[in-house]
Amino acid sequence: MSENEFPQLTALGIREPQRIDRFHINSAAGSDHLRIVYARGKGEFFPVARTYHFPRVQRTAASGEVLESHPALRDAERELKALMEAKEDRRAIAKVALEELDLLKREVENRTAYIRELIEKL
């Protein structure tokens, strides 16, 4: 994963997006809050979570003034969703690979037992 892949996250100062575990977006008092939670190993000094604040943007609509989320927040959310989907895809592939490995292990054990029986009959 490169910085070019996630330009908005890079703009927020996130240098290692692969360490992001999950994120939450909340709204309060005319601003939006993006909280990013990182996967952290034991004994690391990397922060557990970081919060970013984005002001709501006022836009004029036919019904009057409307507050909407900041474009930078929308871009960051889009990048974070793509990142989480990619991680989930990798987890699914890893799960299938481990299942296949277990199946192969059982087949090899069964085949080894059969060959051992044949040798004992000699």
Describe the structure.
The protein has 122 residues and is of the alpha+beta class. The protein contains two helices and five strands; from the N terminus they run H-E-E-E-E-E-H. A three-stranded antiparallel β-sheet has the order 1-2-3, with helices on one face. It has a two-stranded antiparallel sheet with strand order 4-5. Strand 4 (57-61) and strand 5 form a beta hairpin. The longest helix is centred in the last third of the chain and has 51 residues, at 71-121. The protein is elongated. The mean pLDDT is 88.
Outline:
The chain has 122 residues and is of the alpha+beta class. The termini are far apart. Helices cover 46% and strands 28% of the residues.
Q: Count the helices. How many?
A: 2
In what order do the strands lie side by side in the largest sheet? 1-2-3
The Cα radius of gyration reads 25 Å
The end-to-end span amounts to 58 Å
SSE class: alpha+beta
Mean pLDDT: 88
Q: How many distinct beta strands? A: 5
* Main sheet record: 3 strands, antiparallel
Uncertain stretches: none
What's the SSE pattern?
HEEEEEH
Percent in strands: 25-35%
Shape: elongated
State the helicity in percent bands: 40-55%
